[in-house]
Amino acid sequence: MTGPGAGFAALTGPGAGWRRASGKRRGRRMPTPATVEDGRILLLTLAFGALVLTLVLVVASASAVHIERKRLLALADTVAADAADAVDEVAYYQGLLGDAGAGATRVPLTSATVQAAVRDHLLAPASGASNFEGLRVAEPTGTPDGVTAQVTLVALARPPMVPWPIVPWSEGITMRVTSTARAG
Questions:
Q1: Of residues 180, 117, 104, the one with CA closest to residue 144
Q2: Distance CA 59, CA 174 (A)
Q3: Against a cut of 0.90, is the pTM above it?
Q4: Which has more confidence, 75 or 102?
């Protein structure tokens, strides 16, 4: 059929009922595989995003606690070095006067002088001890052999960001460090 009615017959013939004149489908669209998976991909992306965010927060919190421990260890090193210079004057002069040949090259330490030096150093405003929460001196602090100053410090570190995997430690993590310095 040719002529003015030929186009109409092609649009209304068998098998052409589901098309419009513009060529678009009529009625409900058939779902394509991409549209079926869109919701699942979004859910998967959100789950992985939450997992990555949690891991970043855990690593950041662990790094902050590690840095805080390193700062506490630096303070303990400083205090131990200061305590190694704390001479027990009585033992020093008794050693020199009583037995001039033996032990005159070492600075004699006692646990009392080491503990007093630690206390004095930590009470000084410039020591940085005020930067630590719950800072205290613990055992063993003193001298095990008379020439080595041993200092143990304990403080509390609080993770700055507390995601759910580290909630048990949200009240703080106790850090304990020990440093030694020899007098000489």
A1: 180
A2: 18
A3: no
A4: 75
